[in-house]
């Protein structure tokens, strides 16, 4: 009998912010942080019988946000992350932070740190990076408009609510944006497994752009040329690369450590 190859259907891509101009938040932490940050939450759906929702209800009432109880089955149908915890909220008219207004608001004398994400496509990674960035006091996260994940429910969930407090700037051309920021006084640090210096062997006492590359492609030759420093994380085992969010955590907290020690 002749074999018939059956092509598996690809899972539909998760809707991103620019497709419907509405960001769906799933789970307690992202919703709590959005309400605390005063973001424009349009409505909140709560599963009937859900526990530990008093804080959500109180914050919603204080912010004039409507909430309603629905069946858990209804939330299961709407959810995209499969971890909604009986809570889904919708943010109306969400937009990315405008680059020009953001860069003009930054005090360069305070040596801000900015992350540039080079074509990262895993929403879990991007969400975790945003969470780490917010915790480490990063001034903003810049992502590419094309060939990269945008703000989605999975990104919001993985960020544990950090997207409510972190400026996310989306640009058409990362290389041009980096060049513009270098003119403002920023120094650019990128990662390369072939680099001569380890990540802890340079001083980050300067306005710093930290370029984070994808696990497969790295930061790419074009962005590599824009870097003032190329550094590496020592790999002592058989695995040759780290998860992008783990690498981000290591490097951002090296910057935190250096600055706190001074």
Descriptors:
four-stranded mixed β-sheet; alpha/beta; 262 residues; 10 helices; seven-stranded parallel β-sheet; elongated
Helices and strands, in order, run as HEHEHEHEHEHEHEHEEEHEH
Residue-averaged pLDDT: 86
Oligomer: single chain
* Structural shape: elongated
Order of strands, main sheet, comes to: 7-6-5-10-8-11-9
Structural class: alpha/beta
Strand content: 15-25%
How would you describe this structure to a colleague?
The chain has 262 residues and is of the alpha/beta class. Helices cover 34% and strands 21% of the residues. It contains ten helices and eleven strands. The chain has helices at residues 17-20, 28-36, 54-62, 72-78, 99-105, 123-135, 153-158, 174-183, 221-226, 244-261, and strands at residues 22-26, 41-47, 66-70, 87-92, 113-118, 140-144, 168-171, 187-191, 197-198, 208-213, 229-232. The strands form two sheets. The chain has a seven-stranded parallel sheet with strand order 7-6-5-10-8-11-9, with helices on both faces. Strands 1-4-2-3 form a four-stranded mixed sheet. Helix 2 (28-36) packs parallel to helix 3 (54-62).
């Amino acid at each position: 009998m002749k074999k018939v190859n059956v092509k598996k259907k690809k899972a539909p891509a998760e809707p991103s912010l620019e497709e419907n101009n509405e960001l769906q938040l799933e789970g307690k932490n992202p919703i709590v942080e959005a309400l605390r940050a005063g973001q424009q939450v349009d409505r909140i759906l709560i599963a009937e019988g859900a526990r530990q929702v008093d804080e959500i209800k109180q914050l919603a009432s204080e912010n004039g946000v409507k909430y309603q109880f629905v069946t858990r089955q209804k939330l299961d149908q709407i959810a995209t992350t499969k971890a909604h915890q009986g809570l889904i909220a919708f943010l109306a008219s969400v937009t990315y932070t405008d680059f020009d207004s953001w860069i003009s608001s930054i005090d360069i004398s305070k040596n801000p740190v900015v992350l540039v994400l080079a074509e990262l496509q895993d929403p879990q990674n991007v969400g975790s990076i945003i969470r780490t960035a917010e915790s480490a006091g990063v001034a903003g996260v810049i992502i590419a408009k094309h060939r990269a994940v945008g703000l989605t429910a999975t990104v919001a969930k993985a960020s544990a609510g950090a997207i409510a407090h972190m400026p996310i700037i989306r640009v058409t051309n990362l290389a041009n944006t980096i060049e513009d920021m270098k003119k403002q006084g920023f120094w650019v640090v990128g990662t390369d497994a072939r680099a001569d210096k380890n990540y802890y062997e340079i001083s980050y006492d300067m306005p710093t752009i930290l370029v984070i590359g994808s696990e497969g492609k790295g930061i790419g030759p074009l962005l590599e040329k824009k870097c003032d420093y190329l550094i590496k994380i020592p790999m002592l085992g058989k695995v040759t690369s780290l998860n992008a969010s783990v690498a981000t955590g290591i490097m951002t907290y090296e910057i935190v450590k250096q600055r706190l020690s001074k």
